[in-house]
Amino acid sequence: MRPKNLEKEEAIRSLALKIIAEEGLENLSMQKLAKAAGISPRTIYLKYENKEDLLIKLFVEEVLGAYETAVLENFDEQMEFEKGMKKLWLNTFHYLKNNRPSYVLMQYGKSSPLLYKAFQEKNIQQGDFFSPIHRFLTRHIKNNTIRNFPQDVLRALLFSPLFDLVNEYFDHAQRPVQIISEALVLSCCETVIKGIKNS
Amino acid sequence: MRPKNLEKEEAIRSLALKIIAEEGLENLSMQKLAKAAGISPRTIYLKYENKEDLLIKLFVEEVLGAYETAVLENFDEQMEFEKGMKKLWLNTFHYLKNNRPSYVLMQYGKSSPLLYKAFQEKNIQQGDFFSPIHRFLTRHIKNNTIRNFPQDVLRALLFSPLFDLVNEYFDHAQRPVQIISEALVLSCCETVIKGIKNS
DNA sequence: TTTAAGTAAATAAACATTTACTTATATTTG
DNA sequence: CAAATATAAGTAAATGTTTATTTACTTAAA
After folding, report:
1. DSSP sequence for A87-101
2. Percent of chain A clearing pLDDT 70 (strictly above)
3. In angstroms, rounded to a whole number, what is the distance separating the alpha carbons of residues B142 and B120?
4. Is residue A1 pLDDT above 80, yes or no?
5. Residue B107's closest CA among B138, B150, B64?
6. Nearest Cβ partner of A153 from B24, B147, B188?
7. In the prediction, which pLDDT does B71 show?
């Protein structure tokens, strides 16, 4: 039996993300992807049932999965609040700034009904997506370290500015001066922490 | 000369937004849109040069324009910081929660290269998009009311949580209980204000 | 009567997916 | 141990559909 060429599978994934990042989700076609990867369209269908299946697997496994791993690296839910937050912020910042295609597809996940649905289903199936963060926040609410808000609200308050900063980072990457530095990110993180902390 | 039917133009705009919100930008086609509006595809081309032109005008004029108007209603850049922020937050919240299709297309504006480019070009052409907010923030930095960050960074810190809250609002609209109330939004706004204020 | 607004149907290109075939190699067989 | 075989991996080209856009015509009212 002829063995499968793993490089081709990798090419499919990475080029699909590249096309989406450069030309948009609405401009990704199976034939364009096959051509970019130097393979026959049929080869994509050996691994993926159809286009929808490809997009969802790309989003859930390649993007969300890798993102979760990167964000939680060296994070411990028992950490002190400020230390934990800074770890999460820096992990997210470093991962996303080095993986723009993943960032772009994550952004599409907030717009595209197909991807949005896939994200919610993953959450329901596997319990909470970022459960260590969930427990970290729950503990600090109980400890009275931070204000008491529902989890989803807390995430909006604590992490959404970071995503906008990553976006600014990419914007400035095409300009003469990059203003979004690690120091600035940490400074913003401190601002967010100051807002949510009790006392 | 036969007069143009304004209802048809309105139908094109509102149905395009509706299709995008329900099925995604990637599933909007000119023929589908024409069918939904009960008109010939040609009629769309009387008003718009091509699909790209339609999407950009929809985004810039219909969505961003109306959004800017709604957000700045009864806002005065001379307002005290807390009062101004709360006004901006409530205006945004009320407008978006009643205009989900606009919210969805705005989200697409953060992913789709086509729309993203259109947004940046509008900003460059017309100077700053939300200039009263720009001046409001600049003044409060000078007054030492708030921490000194670049404008784009400041916007990430001050307004991005609100967009996530609107998203949560729509999520909860399909569930038994709506947890995102005006009171909660104001409470989140206060949290953000507390973080950014000096002292 | 003029003319832009509008239509139905056509066009050509691009699309997702399939058909019919070829290739490479792990395993079996002589 | 080498030739034969089986078989999934892979290809090129075709399928039928949908796409954006246009052509050729009709309609309404100033």
Report:
1. HHHHHHHHHHHT-HH
2. 100
3. 27
4. no
5. B64
6. B188
7. 98
Tokens coding A192: 């967010």
Q: Which nucleotides of D are covered by protein (CB under 7 A)?
A: 6-14, 18-24, 27-30
Distance separating alpha carbons of residues B88 and A74, to the nearest angstrom: 38
A26: pLDDT strictly greater than 80: yes
| Cα dihedral B122, A181, A17, B156 sign | negative
- The tokens of A127 are what? 């319990």
Give the DSSP letter of residue A2.
P
Alpha helices in chain A (DSSP H): 6-23, 30-37, 41-47, 51-57, 66-72, 81-97, 100-109, 113-125, 131-142, 151-173, 182-196
Sign of CA dihedral A94, A100, A104, A109: negative
- Choose the closest CB to A188 out of B104, B157, B161: B157
Q: Which residue numbers in chain B have pLDDT < 70?
A: none
Among B182, B23, B4, B47, CA closest to B13: B47
Tell me the pLDDT tens digit for each residue of A60-105. 999 999 999 999 999 999 999 999 999 999 999 999 999 999 999 9
Tokens at B61, concatenated: 């004029």
What residues of chain B lie within 8 A of the CB of A24, using their CB?
111-114
A116 CA, C7 C1': separation in Å? 38
Q: Mind giving me the DSSP string for B132-185?
A: HHHHHHHHHHHTTSB----HHHHHHHHHHHHHHHHHHHHHHHTSS-----HHHH
Name the residue with tokens 């000078």.
B142
CA distance B73 to B91: 7
B111 contacts on A by Cβ (under 8 Å) = 24-25, 104, 107-108, 110-112
> How many angstroms from the chain centroid is the CA of residue B95?
9
What is the rounded distance in angstroms from the CA atom of residue B72 to the CA atom of residue A105? 31
Maximum Cα interatomic distance, chain B, rounded to a whole number of Å: 67
